[in-house]
Design a protein that fits this description.
heterodimer; A: 495 residues; mainly alpha; 1% strand; B: mainly alpha; globular
């Protein structure tokens, strides 16, 4: 007889809230009259994301100890809760951006879009708390499938469909690698729980076992697909460019948070005995991401593509924090994710605005004069670009300082040097963005705006970008409070 | 408001002003007035601070210390020593003059422009008062952000190349410094400059020095200099050469020499040689430069070399002279670049071939340029002479040949400055000089006369700085004790 495990409903309340809102939005797609669908679904989605923030903050406060719930399948702890806060906040600003920027003829499928957005957020919220290989894979597929559809939602657009398909195929490859790796690990240890895997490895002296190591390697590869770290990044530029820009904004921030936070958990809790292997492997992936991301970004003209490569390079920076496998590294990772997700979302949101204004792909050339036409968005882009580059205009500066400190603390001075050089290279293209928006007269603009006259008002985008700007700049000043949060979150990981 | 918060006010008042200017939809005139007002308020706060400064006390004054993030021991620690007080003074005075100049010429896109100038003021003050390595680094980098846009938007035709060069060069230096400071800070367990111990690591010393010699700049790290100084708007060039370059030499004194005494000793001859090369080569380039700004730009490099010579001579006289020369050259450079700006506005060019004979009918311009030029060539009795003499005396104590090279540099200074003066003011009238080009107007005089006045005052009493930079007037000892 199968015994029903005790369910700690509160532990999964964030996920339930998001799923509930998603279901209501989906019902709205059928029941609400067409003209009301967009406002209805957006309101529901916004409230859902807000509710998610509230419950995950509550969970953070109320889960000081941290333990596993529901037959040891899910972590109720601060590491999960803090990641959930970031994810839900990203979802919330994405809703604001999408209200005005998911353009569909006659608002077709617009409510479905919001439902999918919340569903994928719920999947990620579950993913970051996964405690065994089963829930890990289940939630990975859950949010990935939602994302595949979101990428392709603009199916009249050739690029969108292609992006969805490409993401589906390459993503499935990543999932397959992860699944196969999980199977090998299970085969080696006879356990699926992260903690049990570690203890089985310890008890039976399995460290260095071929199956286990192979499984670990494949799992890392699968997870790196999701965090778009090189050399598993090849889908990133194409998908980021092809997907509707609000989706790109969401993906670049949220997927990275989910994948990196979970990777840290998996390697720390399930494979502590293999630290000598995975830390070098992750450091290698980090260096590859820094090199490929930054050098490829140098030659991009398409801004979405450029930002896609920049997101790969930032995955590299965050993987430095991850690879060292220390409490300082975990704090650095968690801290870095906060300004990074804000800046990345914000930058893509601004691209979305320009894209809609011009009705064509945004390149460095046709960004000319943008800063003077849209002062607020221009200043925000200025902050994001310099923040990405690690200049002290935002938390990215402190984030870089933290991960590099973590690398030195671990004894990897060479990684500090690599990080510093990568930053230097990245400077060129981030400055290129600022140069494009401020220093080139709009006369150079080759494409005239579609609708002439003053730009659309778009209050929601301004709120969303303003929020991203506030987080990115605020995290420079409020380092200590954020680090304290990250420290408490990281304290549940075994170091 | 307690006295110690003056330092923070000097940093954050202009930054708050910048944000206010960006947000408030003020008219062109109101924006400019507000910016000038804020920059004058800065000067006022600084004067009040200088009046309350106890020059006989060792250690940090007007200091504030609050944790920024504790686990890596990084803090918001600001405060002033005697010499930093003077550098802050230089910053606020120069920025007030330059903001005034921007207002006078009516830069377009005023809200962006004045906001950035104020932001630059705050960041530069921050560099000179930060007593935490990461905070210092943050301000050191923050200076570049407004500079990049100021040159890139309001600069001359070659501005895009100039900005990229400036940024890449200086960031290359400062990122190496970032690596060095992480290593230093984590090794000794604090990023605080006051409590942090000295280090004997030569690599770290070189990491810091690279950032400083690029910023100063010294030969052969001056690749960004000619383009940036020529393409930037004159008032931005003035700030760049008069104030920002001093961040490099300040860093040498505050960090490289004070925190790394052993490596500074070990590399002394090398750095003195680089400094001497910068002095001689910069002077020769200045003598060869075909335009006003070129002369002043390369002379800045020469002067940075001279200041470095004083600092790394490691003698009391050298330190005193270096600090005095930083201030004197800062004021000279700002005045000269602003004068270059006024001349370019009248003639559309700074090329000597097209200039000449401007003294006739323009007595105010001639007097001011003449006075500044004479001070710049270190005629005995001038502030620059006092500074250079101290530096030469200090380097003579190290070894006689450094003093010989330094003295040679001063002879060259006389040559290029006289060449500049005669090419602009005297000789035959240049093709771009017309009778319609008026003498300096009231607004311009209001900016330049005070600057030259301060220079004359310093010429009369150079000891105001040279005797009031290090407590107890014992620089070598104070530096050795890391200013504690």
């Amino acid at each position: 007889m199968i015994t029903t495990p005790h369910v700690d409903w509160f532990a999964i309340s964030t996920i339930l809230v998001l799923l509930g809102a998603s279901a209501i939005a989906l019902l709205g797609a059928v029941l609400v009259p067409r003209p009301w669908r967009r406002p209805f679904a957006a309101t529901v989605a916004g409230l859902g994301a807000l509710g998610g923030i509230v419950t995950s903050v509550w969970l953070y406060v109320d889960s000081a100890g941290g333990h596993r719930v529901i037959a040891d399948a899910f972590y109720r702890d601060r590491w999960t809760a803090l990641a959930q806060v970031i994810l839900c906040a990203t979802a919330l600003v994405t809703v604001l951006l999408s209200v005005e920027h998911i353009v569909r003829n006659d608002d077709e499928h617009v409510a479905e879009f919001f439902a999918l957005l919340l569903a994928s957020t719920a999947g990620m919220a579950f993913f970051v708390g996964a405690a065994n290989l089963m829930t890990l894979f289940l939630s990975l597929e859950w949010f990935s499938i939602a994302l595949y559809i979101m990428c392709a939602i603009d199916y009249d657009l050739e690029g969108s469909l292609e992006a969805g398909l490409k993401y589906l195929i390459v993503g499935s490859f990543g999932s397959a690698a992860l699944l196969f790796g999980s199977a090998l690990v299970y085969g080696a240890t006879n356990h699926i729980g992260f903690v049990e895997i570690a203890s089985a490895v310890g008890q039976h002296g399995l460290s260095g076992d071929l199956l286990l190591v192979l499984g670990l390697a494949m799992m890392l590869a699968g997870l790196s697909f999701k965090s778009s770290a090189a050399p598993f990044h090849m889908w990133t530029p194409d998908v980021y460019v092809g997907a509707p820009t609000p989706v790109t904004a969401f993906m670049s921030a949220a997927t990275k948070v989910a994948a990196l936070v979970l990777t840290m958990r998996v390697v720390q809790t399930a494979f502590p005995q293999e630290a000598h292997l995975w830390s070098w492997a992750l450091a290698g992936i980090a260096v590859a991401s820094l090199v490929i991301g930054n050098f490829a970004a140098l030659v991009q003209r398409d801004v979405k593509r450029l930002l896609a490569y920049s997101s790969i390079s930032h995955a590299g920076f965050m993987l430095i924090g991850l690879s060292v496998g220390t409490a300082l590294g975990a704090r650095a990772l968690m801290y870095y994710l906060i300004p990074y997700s804000a800046m990345s979302f914000g930058a893509f949101a601004i691209v979305a605005v320009r894209e809609r204004e011009l009705g064509t792909r945004v390149t460095l050339e046709n960004l000319a004069g943008f800063g003077w036409e849209r002062p607020f968005l221009g200043v925000a882009m200025w902050f994001f670009a310099f923040g990405f580059a690690g200049l002290p205009l935002g938390g990215g500066f402190v984030g870089k300082f933290y991960v590099l400190s973590a690398a030195y603390d671990h004894g990897w001075t060479w990684l500090v040097i690599v990080g510093v050089l990568a930053t230097l290279v990245s400077l060129y293209y981030y400055l290129g963005i600022v140069r494009a928006i401020y220093m080139r007269p709009s006369a150079e603009l080759q494409v005239a705006p579609v609708s002439g006259g003053s730009p659309a008002r778009e209050p929601f985008v301004h709120v969303a970008v303003g929020a991203a700007l506030a987080v990115s700049v605020g995290s420079l000043f409020a380092v200590q409070p954020l680090i304290t949060l990250a420290k408490h979150a990281a304290s549940v990981l075994p170091f | 408001m307690s006295v110690s918060s003056f330092t923070s006010v000097l940093i954050w008042l202009p930054i708050a002003g910048a944000i206010a200017i960006w947000i408030l939809p003020l008219s062109r005139y109101a924006t400019g007035s507000l910016a000038v007002l804020i920059s004058l308020a800065e000067v006022g706060v600084w004067i009040e601070q200088a009046a309350r400064f106890d020059f006989n006390r060792t250690g940090l004054q007007f200091s504030q210390d609050a944790p920024w993030f504790k686990d890596l021991h990084v803090s918001y620690h600001v405060g002033e020593y005697g010499f930093s007080l003077w550098l802050v003074g230089l910053t606020v005075v120069a920025m007030a003059a330059c903001i005034g100049y921007g207002f006078w010429v009516g830069r377009d896109r005023p809200r962006a422009y004045f906001g950035l100038m104020l932001f630059l003021t705050g960041a530069t003050v921050g560099v000179f008062v930060a007593q935490d390595l990461l905070l210092f680094y943050a301000f050191f980098e923050a200076m570049l952000i407004p500079l990049y846009v100021l040159i890139g938007v309001w600069g001359g035709p070659g501005r895009l190349g100039a900005t990229i060069k400036l940024l890449i060069y200086t960031m290359a230096g400062s990122l190496i410094m970032l690596a060095a400071l992480i290593v230093y800070g984590l090794k000794v367990g604090t990023f605080d400059l006051v409590t942090g111990p000295t280090s004997a690591s030569r690599w770290l010393f070189l990491g810091f020095m690279l950032a400083f010699v690029i910023k100063a700049p010294l030969f052969p790290f001056h690749g960004w200099l000619p383009d940036a100084y020529r393409e930037a708007p004159p008032e931005v060039t003035a700030v760049l050469s008069g104030v920002i370059a001093k961040a490099g030499t300040y860093g040498m004194l505050r960090i490289a020499i004070a925190k790394f005494p052993e490596p500074a000793h070990y590399y002394r001859t090398l750095i003195l040689a680089v400094a001497a090369a910068a002095l001689v080569y910069g002077s020769l380039l200045a003598f060869r430069a075909p335009d006003f700004r070129g002369v002043v730009a390369y002379s800045s490099m020469a002067q940075s070399g001279l200041i470095t010579l004083g600092l790394f001579s490691g003698t009391s006289l050298g330190y005193d002279g270096a600090v005095l020369q930083m201030i004197a050259h800062g004021l000279i450079s700002v005045s000269l670049f602003l004068l270059a700006g006024t001349i370019e506005r009248r003639t559309t060019t700074g090329q000597f071939a097209l200039l000449g004979g401007m003294a006739r009918g323009r007595p105010a311009l001639a007097t001011l340029l003449m006075t500044t030029g004479i001070i710049a060539l270190a005629v005995p009795g001038s502030a620059a002479f006092a500074g250079e003499f101290l530096i030469l005396a200090g380097s003579y104590q190290r070894a006689w040949w450094w003093a010989v090279i330094g003295a040679g540099g001063i002879v060259l200074a006389a040559m290029y400055m006289l060449r500049l003066i005669s090419a602009v003011l005297h000789e035959a009238r240049g093709s771009t000089v017309h009778d319609e080009a008026l003498d300096l107007r009231t607004g311009e005089l209001a900016l330049l006369v005070p600057l030259v006045g301060v220079l004359l005052a310093l010429s009369a009493w150079p000891a105001a700085i040279s005797h009031h930079s290090f407590a107890g007037d014992a620089p070598a000892q104070i530096v050795q004790e890391q200013f504690r």
